[in-house]
Structures are given as structure tokens and as C-alpha cells.
Amino acid sequence: xxxxxxxxxxxxxxxxxxxxxxxxxxxxxxxxxxxxxxxxxxxxxxxxxxxxxxxxxxxxxxxxxxxxxxxxxxxxxxxxxxxxxxxxxxxxxxxxxxxxxxxxxxxxxxxxxxxxxxxxxxxxxxxxxxxxxxxxxxxxxxxxxxxxxxxxxxxxxxxxxxxxxxxxxxxxxxxxxxxxxxxxxxxxxxxxxxxxxxxxxxxxxxxxxxxxxxxxxxxxxxxxxxxxxxxxxxxxxxxxxxxxxxxxxxxxxxxxxxxxxxxxxxxxxxxxxxxxxxxxxxxxxxxxxxxxxxxxxxxxxxxxxxxxxxxxxxxxxxxxxxxxxxxxxxxxxxxxxxxxxxxxxxxxxxxxxxx
Length: 355
Description:
Keywords: ATP-binding, Carbohydrate metabolism, Cytoplasm, Galactose metabolism, Kinase, Magnesium, Metal-binding, Nucleotide-binding, Transferase. The structure is a single chain. This protein has a six-stranded mixed beta sheet with strand order 5-4-6-3-1-13, covered by helices on one side. A four-stranded antiparallel beta sheet has the order 10-11-9-12. It has a three-stranded antiparallel beta sheet with strand order 2-7-8, sandwiched between helices. It has two domains: about 180 residues, Ribosomal Protein S5, domain 2; about 160 residues, GHMP kinase, C-terminal domain (Alpha-Beta Plaits). It starts with a strand and ends with a strand. It has about 350 residues and is an alpha+beta fold. β10 and β11 form a beta hairpin. The chain is built from ten helices and 13 strands. α2 crosses α4 and α5 packs across α7.
């Protein structure tokens, strides 16, 4: 076993392809240069300390605690199930990733913990397998029925690229992400969602019911005609979002190839309004922000990002955006009494060890 190891595990943003990853859809995420930092070294007990909340936990048994520690305990459990030896360790966790902002802090923690443990134990690390184990931790141990996007993006991303993933086949490819005249920004709305909330799992269930009603096994078999035949209005709306969002991802790929940022921006706005009206995962605060952004030509496009019900907005804009943001921020604060935060975003490699 090694001595102290330091691992940086990035957050992720998703350019487009929201709520499609658990529906056999297409997604286009990328890792960002904001990280969960994990220090690990061999110990005589399992000890984990969070710098962010100034709390630690010691444990001997690998049982659920219904706290943040479950992301660590769950990874130990899942690594062992996959045949990896996990010795006792002391772990310190810190982060500059805002919690609850839709930037996938939980996947960053899971993948980072797994990478740190495997590094400490001197295993060769297969990043795809690590992503799958982290996904199992989230779904089976923590209990959030998320898709694979977050764990894949955190484990597999490459700087200056987006990661196009077909979630049905789990195949992926790197898409050059050169914006030149534009930048990606993330605006933290200050409204926090709980990803484990009943609404998220409810959306998954509604998608399953929509497939059942259409007599299909996967949304990849579904046509617009199938959707039109759905009688139950809510199921029709959910299905409509999934198949149109898949189309938008493919159209965004084409627009990126020709560096047509106006088109990419249009698809972002279209995605937002589908998430608002068809998937119903937006909120008043974020809708207000998007409406403000639409008034400025310097902003190509924007949409809610992440699970929804708050979190962040991803924005594609030129460098005048910071000035525009100040104006919109003042209106937002006046209306809602909340100060939004602006994060500039740079693409990052996936999880890595500090050598």
C-alpha cells in the first residue's frame, strides 16, 4: 500500500441532453475545473473527515448512515463486491464544488473515493469500470435512481472536449469543444434541490409508464407518432421531452462541428423550455433568469442544468456576459431576495491523482 495519496475529482456540467441518460438517450457532458479533493492514507480504522462541514465519522461496519458518509461507505461496499481488497484508511475530503448546484458533487465524491482507494491499494484502474461501480453505489446503496452520465463524465472526461455518450450502448466519444469567441458560464441560482427527492424518482417512473403505454422497451424505438397516441397528458409530455431532447443533442453535435454557436444556443433555449413545460423540472426563479437572458444578443443560449428544481443554469455567451450578469443578478435579487453566483467554467480531465 502507498502512503498519503491526493486525488482531484471534477464536477461536471452537461451542455445538453438532460433527463435522457436513464432513458437510453444521448448526452453531452464535460468535466469542469472545480474539484472534490480527497486525501487518503492507510490507517487502523476507517476514518473520514469533511473539511466543508467540519465533521468526521469513524466506522467499523459498512452500513448505511443516511448521511454524506454513505457515498464513501457505499464505494467500499461496491468495490468489495467487485472483488477489490479495501484496507482501513484515513480520508480527508475538501471541495470547491458548490453542493446542490447541479454540478454533480455526489458523483465527484463517489468516483474520487473509488479512485483514491484503488490507488492506495495499487490497483490498475479501469475508468469505465470505476464509473460503473460508482453508479451502482449511487443507485443501489445511496438510493438515487440516476443515470450513468455523472459518473462517466467525472471518470472519463478529457480537457477541451465534451463527452458524447450513447447511454443505451454505453459507447462514448470525445467531441472537440473549441468555443474561441464564446465561453461557458454556470449561474448558481441559490435554490438548492435534493437529488434524492421524490420528484426525481417520480419522473423516472413516469417515463417507464409511458414506455409501457406505448408498448415499447426503449425510447430509442419511440417515434413522434407513438407519443401522439399517448392518452395520459403527463406521460405524453414526459415522452415528448425525451425524444426531442435526443434530437437536440444530435443537432448540437452537428452545430459544434461547424462551430455554429448561434445554433448551439438555440438548442439550449429549446432544451430549457422542454424541461420547463414537458418535463416540469424547472422553477420560477430559474425561468425568470432565462427570460432575462433571452433579451440579450450577447447570450447565445441558456438552460437549467442538472436534476432540476433549482440548481444551476448553463449559459453560452460572449465575454460581455459578466456585465450582463450584474444587471440580471440585481433584478433577480430584488425579486427573490437571493444573490445568484457566477462561475466561469473551463473543461477538465476526469479524476486524477496529484503526482
